[in-house]
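Lab notes, practical 5.
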Amino acid sequence: MGTDTIIRLSAFLCVFAILSTAEFFTPRRRLTTSRSRRWFANLTIVALNPLSVALVYPVLPIEVALLASEQGWGLLNQWALPYGLEVLMGVAALDFAVYAQHVLHHAIPMLWRLHLIHHADLDFDLTTGLRFHPIEIIVSMAVKLSIVVALGAPPLAVLIFEVALNATSMFNHSNIRIPGKVDWVLRLIVVTPDMHRVHHSVIIRETNSNYGFNLPWWDRLLGTYKAQPAKGHTDMVIGLSQFRDPKRLTLPRLLILPFVGDPGRVPINRH
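Output from the prediction step:
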């Protein structure tokens, strides 16, 4: 196991432990379905994703970043910039790429079919932030590897981004209560749970907002920011209108959902 893998796994376990504890003691919303059933399905999918990636890709983003640095590939390797600035630019560029990719997953019907497993969760907690179909993870990895090469992102930038993306995805999907004034300050620099929860609303115009994972600036700059859900955070309905029966959202059904499930109204294409 490489050093970068140890760092990523250690960060994941620490963040998961902290957030799951916080969710237990200070929940933002009352859960509407069985936590044990959801967590079994969601965490099993999480376990499948690294296996899927390993079967398809012989290298990971950090290894590609090292190769790009050695070969002088990519935009940042063409300029003599201070290393710290290269790292900051690399992290910001990768985060914008994730934002743009997320928008495309809502805009392109085929990608939406893969992504809807994430939105079909009837509750919203840290495991929702880890629940992505293995094929979506494979597609996302192809995009990520391409961007790392084209950008020439420093290996340190890729490592920081990978750790941050995993941690913030759990954080901004977590069911924790953050005081309003603290949330207002936090969402100036990071996507908060109250900000991202709007994106998981059953109301299409709210689903079509707040696409960011790490940085909140892209939504504000590109007009996809929505401050609060219309019905408030405690009364809003989470999920997709065509998938409301928990018995039809078991692990086997979730894995075949992109192929047999009703895609409903793709937000950007239909509105």
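Observations recorded by the TA: The mean pLDDT is 93. The CA atoms of residues 11 and 163 lie 7 Å apart.
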